[in-house]
Design goal:
mainly alpha
Length: about 100
Amino acid sequence: MGPLWQNVLTLGVFAGLIALAVTAIVVSRREEGRHTRSSEALWHDLRRAHGLSRREVRILRRAAEKAALDPRSLIFVEPHVLMRLADDNEASRGEIQDLMSRLS
């Protein structure tokens, strides 16, 4: 009866470890989803709070992508990113500067 008992115990421990690993994976993915949803919600809330037009949102999105900001809502607290975009883009420099003043 000894070897059979050891096999059952080994299988039980192995099943417990697998269950623990699956639980850890599910919880971590759920947490990642919360971060993504909360980042998107913040982005939309900040856009609405500042009353930005679609064109202004495109400018902010482009600047955030260019600066590789994650989450992109950091563009609202990182004005130097917009300054760099204004320096690189002569055609819309005035519009970017107006947008910067609205966000300040």
